[in-house]
Amino acid sequence: MNRKTLVLPAVVGLLAPVLAACGGADSGSGGGDAIVVGTTDRFTATKDAPAPLDPAYAYDVGTWNILRQTVQTLMIQPKGEGEPVPEAAQSCGFTDSGNERYACKLRSDLKFSDGNAVTAEDVKFSIDRARSIKADSGVFALLSTIDTIETQGDNEVIFHLKTADATFPFKLSTPVAGIVNPDDYEKDKLREGFSVDGSGPYTLKAETDGDEMTKAVFTKNPHYKGALEVNNGEVDMVSYEDADDMGTALEKGDIDLMTRSMSPEQIQKLSEATADSDIDLIELGGLEIRYLAFNTNAPEVKTKAVRQAMAQVIDRDHLVSEVYGSQAEPLYSLVPASITGHSNSFFNKYGDPSVSKAKELLAKADITTPVKLTLNYTTDHYGPATKDEFELLRKQLNDSGLFDVTVKGTAWDTFVPAERKGEYEVWGMGWFPDFPDADNYVAPFLDKDNFLNSPYRNSDIINDLIPQSRREADRLSAGKSLTEIQDIVADDVPVLPLWQGKQYVAASTDITGTAYVLNSSATVQLWELGRGVSS
To answer: Fewer CB atoms inside 10 A, N or C side of the chain?
Structure first.
């Protein structure tokens, strides 16, 4: 049977909380053949990044999808949409009217995968560890509003915040706040390699080839106590060189499901499959965005007018229709259209693409044209269409006569260290939100500890507007501050949003739970998968 395309909407920020499924170590099938999931994500331990799976370092969608299966967090984003709900905690909440004191009580009988008890001190150790190591990935910034952490007995953790932060429960649902076993993690040093020890629904065994993890074997953790119902005994995640190889493996039956990152052509082909196909395509609401980032200290783009002129020339509608079709939508802000607080700030400022307006911007700033630039992109992280996207961006900019652009593709394990060292003037990135709130499309890019290591600083955003937005428990009330931030970004252009995309899963028809295997933040929820009877 072909279910055609099951579409789950992602309307975030206005939905009531949804309760997570209840379960424990005895839930799930516990047996049967392993479910095999394909991915094009690559997991490499390099000299620049020797600890890719340490929660204090990891900060990309691929590594987080490993950690979310293995490392338990106090809170978790629910099966559907809505506010985060307790996971390792039995209850959490603000205990003051100013949203500056947040207390959590742990579930009883929590255990690490080795059988040792999880205590409040372990939670404090894990989160303080990430805060103190301050890895160059920038992931520690998610915990920046924490002032101190105290424990009361073995099962209560109290967070004292520097300032009000209504988004704090979301941050406790991210892997950087994951609980790790102090027996296996040093307080002031990252754990190198591919071992992970936590209290999550699965244990991990990594199969490697040199410095690369080629398969992640997730086995149901018999000691797991939490909110999740685990519907299988084992899931194997296999890394493929590219989307074509992954697609071939699904067709041959070597894998049961594939997700990141399918090509637009694969998605289109699967959507047109006949009713007797043994592969289902599931479309899910997504909050992924793509954008260009700028090193605002680089001579080529240091002048704001150059960045503004690029914003004025690039035709997002043409870019999306040519490369991604109906699988993406043009984006005119860092905050996606489906998130509370979104404003079309770039369209409001620049309107439709216009070479004449861009020429005028450059002339007023006495910029000699054509401006010579290199657009850098990664070849193996965001899918095979990235090259086509950057070739089209190059053409749009060069056809204006105002730019002389070349493009350069680099593998992810080289691309990220180069970007963090400031070696690129302009580079393309994607963002899968840590949690579905506008704050997570603003602070990681613009706060003082931004993950891009960008030199761009705006004191109004950092000192006033971000803190103001976080004080509003009702996220609709944060709209004024968030709109001001987005308007400043549209004027200064430290980043240039391009499009937001949908999510897709392709799976054999006998695999169940596929409608929930990804949430809106692109989190893989392997515990949802089961093996049923093919129809």
So the answer is: C
